[in-house]
Every structure is written in structure tokens, then in C-alpha cells.
Design a protein that fits this description.
alpha/beta; 2-enoyl-CoA Hydratase, Chain A, domain 1; 2 domains; two-stranded parallel sheet; globular; Enoyl-CoA hydratase/isomerase family protein
């Protein structure tokens, strides 16, 4: 990274580690002693990264992965003790509300990120970790990964991740998973629509990741960002006619853009487009 790269100005603590290889940014959740339970510092660090790269078209994919062979075991219970003390001092639930809502803001930020977000899911994928998996564009799981929404068994609710789980797996399946709190493996996660591919060992997991990143690189950077934004709009209550009119205008702009012309020439000349090796 150059001195002027936006990531150089990002303030992150040791709860995450950043690794950039060309156009691919890897975010390692780095609290292996707690199965990468998500602390408030981790949440804020992730938000700082995504805010910094929002306009950075040189970063085409973000890969989430956990150190210690676990993805994320949910929220950090230790943080809750401090929040409980703050709530008692204030005599209100505001500290709980602020803490929970900050996590929701992070999930929303990742969900709306213009980059293609890839989640590599191993070990524990629980609670908030499950929610983070549900906002990835591509999710690849080890067959032995353990998924679940354990919140109701703890006397709480999956307050911020619930809408994203419903979008991912549908209301009927989300009801069963959230209300029963059952654990399930990677194969079941594939069946439910949480993940897209399942690896049967570490070697296959790495191969699937590399194959996915190569496919991301073959897609035009600006076209990918515009396509992701269009897909998000398609899932809202926006009027269809207006959406399709706008999409047609975007299509025309893309055809006449440098990307569109390079993509067409590469196809005609039977070669890879220039962005494929970035």
C-alpha cells in the first residue's frame, strides 16, 4: 500500500488483522482465545475499514476469515458485563441499545459495501457471526463448521441480525432456526441457503477460495459495484418501472464506458480483459 492509501489512516485494534494482496483485502477476525467473539472494538474496527474503502475502486473483494479455525462465536459476553454496569449507573437501557445498534450498523455497512464480500466459514459460526455470514456475497463453509442462532437459549434475541437472516434464508426457515436455536453443519447450511459451497477438507477450502477470487477478478470492477447496488435495490419496495428505467440508463452508460469497450474487445479478440490480472 502507498502512503496515501486510505487503509493507512484506519484505526484498528488487534481484534482484526488486515492483509492486502493486490485488489483483494482480507480481514482476519483475531480473537482466537474466544473463538473470535465479536467485541465492540472489533465491530468499530470493521466499520472503520469499510468506511475507508467505500470509494476505493482498487479493492474489488473483501474476504472475512477467523484465526484459530473459528469464524465467529457471536457477541462477546465480557462486553455485556461492562455495559450492564453502565446501564445501572445511568439508570436506563441506553447503553444496551447503543451497543446492540452499533453491531447492526456494522452488519448493514458490510451488507451495502460495493466490494464483493466473501466469507470463509470454519468452526463456530454463531449469533453475530451467523449474521455476518448472511451479508456476504459468497459464503464458503467447511463441512464441519457449526452454525446456529443461540440467542433465545440465552434469554435474548437476535435483534440486529434477524432482518438479514430472513433475507438470506426466508422467513419460514429463519423462524425455525431462531426459535429452536439448533446447531447445524456446513452441509445443512448449504441446504438452507446460508452458504454457497462446502469444502470437505482444508485443501478444498483453499481451492474454492482461490477459484472464487479468480472469478471476481474476471468481472469488471465498476460493473460489479453497479450490479451489486442494483441487486440491493431490486430487493426493496422500489417501483419496478422506475428501477428498470434507471437500470437501462446505467446499461447504456456501461456499454459506452472504457470498461464496456474493453470487455467487448477482449471478447472479440478472445483474450482476458485488462482488469482480470489486477
Amino acid at each position: 500500500m502507498t502512503d496515501s492509501h486510505p487503509l493507512n489512516a484506519v484505526l484498528v485494534d488487534d481484534s482484526i488483522k488486515l492483509e492486502q494482496q493486490g485488489s483483494i483485502l482480507k480481514i482476519w477476525l483475531n480473537r482466537p482465545e474466544s473463538r473470535n467473539a465479536m467485541s465492540l472494538n472489533m465491530v468499530k474496527s470493521i466499520m472503520s475499514v469499510f468506511n475507508a474503502i467505500a470509494e476505493d475502486t482498487s479493492i474489488r473483494a473483501v474476504v472475512f476469515r477467523g484465526h484459530g479455525n473459528h469464524f465467529c462465536a457471536g457477541g462477546d459476553i465480557k462486553d455485556m458485563a461492562g455495559i450492564r454496569a453502565a446501564a445501572m449507573n445511568e439508570g436506563s437501557n441506553k447503553p444496551y441499545i447503543d451497543f446492540n445498534r452499533t453491531f447492526g450498523a456494522m452488519i448493514e455497512l458490510v451488507d451495502q459495501a460495493p466490494q464483493t464480500v466473501v466469507a470463509i466459514l470454519e468452526g463456530a459460526v454463531l449469533g453475530g457471526g451467523f449474521g455476518l455470514a448472511c451479508v456476504s456475497d459468497v459464503a464458503i463453509a467447511h463441512q464441519n463448521a457449526q452454525f446456529g442462532l443461540p440467542e433465545t437459549g440465552l434469554g435474548i434475541l437476535p435483534a440486529q441480525i434477524a432482518p438479514f437472516v430472513v433475507k438470506r434464508v426466508g422467513l419460514t426457515q429463519a423462524r425455525r432456526l431462531a426459535l429452536l436455536g439448533a446447531r447445524f453443519d456446513g452441509e445443512k447450511a448449504l441446504q438452507f441457503g446460508v452458504v454457497h459451497e462446502v469444502a470437505h477438507d482444508e485443501s478444498e477450502l483453499e481451492q474454492l477460495l482461490e477459484s472464487t477470487l479468480e472469478q471476481i477478478k474476471r468481472a469488471a470492477p465498476l460493473a460489479s459495484r453497479a450490479t451489486k447496488a442494483l441487486l440491493h435495490r431490486a430487493s426493496t419496495q422500489e417501483a419496478l418501472g422506475g428501477l428498470l428505467d434507471d437500470a437501462a440508463a446505467q446499461f447504456a452508460d456501461a456499454v459506452n464506458s472504457p470498461e464496456g469497450m474493453e470487455g467487448t474487445m477482449a471478447f472479440i479478440q478472445k483474450r482476458k480483459p485488462t482488469w482480470a490480472d489486477e
